[in-house]
Amino acid sequence: MIARNSKQEWLARTLNTSGCGRMLRSTAAWRGVLVLNYHRIGDSAHSDLDRGLWSATVEDFDRQVREVTRQFDVIGLDDLDDVFQRRTGRHVLITFDDGYLDNYTEAFPILKSHGAKATFFLTTGFLDVPRVPWWDEIAWMVHHSPRAELPENRWTGTPVPFQEPHRNRAIVELLRTYKRLLGDQTDDYVEDLSRLLGTGRCPRQIAHELWMTWPMIREMRQAGMDIGGHTVNHPILANLPPEQQDYEVRECRRRIVAELREPISAFSYPVGGKSSFDEHTQAALERHGFRWGFTYLGGHVRFGKHDRFSLPRSAVEMDVTESLFQGVLTLPQVFA
Q1: For position 2, what pLDDT does the model report?
Q2: DSSP for 124-166?
Q3: Beta partners for 314?
């Protein structure tokens, strides 16, 4: 994941203002594949959902795609075999996770305007039966809670205060708790939060404004975008028993293939950290015909040193400044 501490921001600005960044980009200071990962495009300022899911404003995304296409070879999934075999050049793969509607309404037109490909990893259950995902629902409950804190409970132990204006720290902590739970505990956790926070569950009608539709997906595919899998229900796969992991991988692929009438080759792991997938997950990908598995671990893919079921991606998020983004493109081994 792209780091955002003050030292890295200072270094990124120094590279840009001194001209060293331009020099390093011209001398190809890295080789391989840099995979950028986005979730949502737009303005999160007034959203009651998880604001951490927005990756860039429309203006910033347009600028970022322009920079990437100007400086690098922007590739698709079908190019990976050839790129890894040739082991030369600097390549960028743009990816999106989940299947949010703004991927179609905001990101897709920008990508087309720059002649850039991107890969969209879909959580098929959200498209088939729209619902508010667990991270957005938890954020919604915290934003709407009349309480000053989450009281002592069996999940977090100690109370979780809501002092700061946007309650973001509390949301991050409650999402972190969710990610540690076994799959058969998560529903009880969300239900308990709805009671303890005094909000009830998030209104279901919100879900109908969140997700792309299959006709949108087919239009994007016909325009040259790539489509991949991201499970059916977006669980933390490593927290599930092997047979449930297999279901999430198998059924996700089946639904996408049924809608597109063509095979797919790539999958991204929900959450994507080291503890979010395991050997059973990777075995399921192999078993069901996936060739590539993408993580959320940060960094870039170095030629000759990659595991095709553990490809790193660098997260682009709202607090990535223009200097930091240029730093990632210039020295991903440092900034990604």
Answers
A1: 43
A2: HHHHHS----HHHHHHHHHHH--SSEEPSBTTTBS-EE--STT
A3: 36
Q: Count of CB atoms within 10 A of residue 74's CB?
A: 21
pTM: 0.94
Rounded Cα distance, 3 and 166, in Å: 22
Task: Give the C-alpha distances (Å, rounded to integers) separating 283 from 133, 230, 250, 253.
Answer: 26, 15, 11, 14
Note the pLDDT of residue 187. Answer: 98
Report the C-alpha gap between 101 and 44 in whole angstroms: 14
Structure token pair of residue 94: 């743009």
* Integer Cα distance of 31 and 88 in angstroms: 7
Q: How far apart are CA 192 and CA 160, in angstroms?
A: 14
Sign of CA dihedral 108, 202, 139, 237: negative
Q: Which residues of the chain have pLDDT under 50?
A: 1-3
315 vs 335: CA distance, rounded Å: 11
The Cα 128–Cα 168 span in angstroms is 30
- Residue 21, pLDDT score: 60
**Cα separation values, 336 from 8, 87, 170, 234, 263, Å:** 11, 20, 26, 25, 31
Residues 6 or more apart in contact with residue 91 via CB below 8 angstroms: 32, 33, 34, 72, 73, 74, 75, 79, 83
Rounding to the nearest 10 degrees, give the CA dihedral for residues 180, 182, 186, 189.
-70
CATH code, 6-127+213-335 = 3.20.20.370
* Domain range annotation of the chain: 6-127+213-335, 134-205
Neighbours of 8 (CB within 10 A): 17
Q: Is residue 96 a contact partner of residue 121, using CB atoms and an 8 Å limit?
A: yes
